[in-house]
Amino acid sequence: MNTAAFLGGLSLLAALGLGAPQAHAQALAQTQAQTNAPAGRRGGPGGGRGQSLVSPEIHADRTVTFRVRAANATNVTVAGEMPGGSRSLTRDERGVWSVTMGPLEPNIYSYSIAVDGFRTADPSNSKLKPEPGPTTSMFQIRGEPPLLHDLQDVPHGVVSLLEYPSKSLGKLRYARVYTPPGYEKGGRAKFPILYLLHGSGDNEGTWSDFGHAHVILDNLLAQKKIKPMIVVMADGHAAYAQVPATNAGAATGRFVAPFEHDLLEDLLPLVEGRYRVRSGRENRAIVGLSMGGGQALGIGLNHLELFAWVGGMSSAVGDPNTTLASLAADPKATNEKLKLLWFACGKADSLLGRNQQLDDWLKQHNLNHEFIQTEGGHAWPVWRNNLAQFTPLIFGK
Asked: Which of 18, 250, 292, 351 lies in disulfide reach of 22, CB 3.0 to 4.6 Å?
């Protein structure tokens, strides 16, 4: 364990007024089902200290109250995707800190709590945003009528966890696999497949748990806007168990090449051998956001023998003269192979410039593509919408 993180954790326990046994007792109490009752209304072991807090508490007017019990803390803040930036909490006589903000627009929000500068997930919220090192909680305010990422009364697909040994990386790896409604009932029907990649700091679970990709797909299917498909959500953070000497110290060797090897040599053949997947490049697509957008464009466009549909959202793209040189060598052949090259970026996104440069480069080399600029920045509301824009375009004629 990182020493700084360990000491920070001890400081956090002290601020919360907990020793190790007390922290364990509170952790057990936090596994109980949450309600929208105010703080202190539900009792728990250990008297006042054991009473469970409700945080966040979502009110009927869409305001949200955050609460943290930290008797010995001197400063507690909350920050996340809510507008207004970081907000300070106020301490009451029981050592409970709280703040109410909003009303908030219907959406899915992520946030973290900072106790005397130590950033952590909300101790009273069991809903964690999937990350390699989770420090972020999440909550949802449903729309009325429901938004596209809200669960609706339609047929639902299934998201499964896939654990697999990666021979190329020398370690166990994980992926999530979405199958469309009715797939689990069996039959001979086969489906096209989409590889959906996350951004830096997330993992294979983020697109489903926080992005609600499966819910979006279920709703689009019910609206008859997309074709039924299998979706593989891979873990884009890849590194060799032992870094080859030839790649030591090279960013491309440690972070880019390993994922490409894992995806193409391990995950793709495993999934497409286990699930009922249609064969052929015309039945295979790849898209991702931010880091995953760069990966999707780089891997997809350099492997047109495998992918006919390629996309990116707020993509972290490099110099196309280096990463995509093979496309420009024969633009006519590239255009014949590509059924779709689509990428999007928010007008307030810090990566807009890179995506505009890619757009210009593709135009200069007469390479067919679609580039759209949307409202918003480098944020999940934009990417959920991008997924709803991209998926109706793929696997058509």
From this structure: 18
Residue 82 and residue 121 in one domain:
yes
Q: b or e along 360-391 (b: 16 or more beta carbons within 10 Å of the residue's beta carbon)?
A: ebbeebebebebeebebbbebbbbbbbbbbbb
Percentage of the chain lying above the pLDDT 70 cut: 83
Confirm if 142 and 231 have CB atoms less than 8 A apart. Answer: no
Residue 369 zone, left/alpha/beta (φ > 0; ψ -120 to 50; rest)? beta
Last-in-domain residue among 109, 141, 173: 141
Question: Is the domain of 136 the same as that of 255?
Answer: no
pLDDT digits (tens, 9 = 90+) for 242-279: 544 443 333 333 457 899 999 999 999 999 999 999 99
Q: With cut-offs at 50, 70 and 90, classify the pLDDT of residue 171.
A: very high
Write out the residue range of the structural domain in which residue 54 sits: 3-141
Contacts of 90 (CB under 8 A, 6+ apart): 97, 98, 99
Model confidence at 334: pLDDT above 90: yes
Query: Residues 164, 115: one domain?
Result: no
Identify the three-state secondary structure at position 223: coil
Q: Is the pLDDT of residue 370 over 50?
A: yes
CA dist., res. 267 & res. 232, Å (int) = 9
**CA end-to-end distance (rounded Å), the chain:** 52
Q: Is 203 exposed, middle or buried (0-12, 13-18, 19+ CB in 10 A)?
A: buried
- The CATH number for 269's domain is 3.40.50.1820
Half-sphere exposure of 207 (CA within 13 A, CB side): 36
Q: How confident is the model at residue 219 (pLDDT cuts 50, 70, 90)?
A: very high
Q: 149 lies in a domain?
A: no
Least confident of 43-47, 110-114, 214-218, 293-297: 43-47
In a domain, 152, yes or no: no
Structurally, how many domains does the chain consist of?
2
> Six-digit token pair at 60?
């009927």
Residue 163 and residue 136 share a domain: no
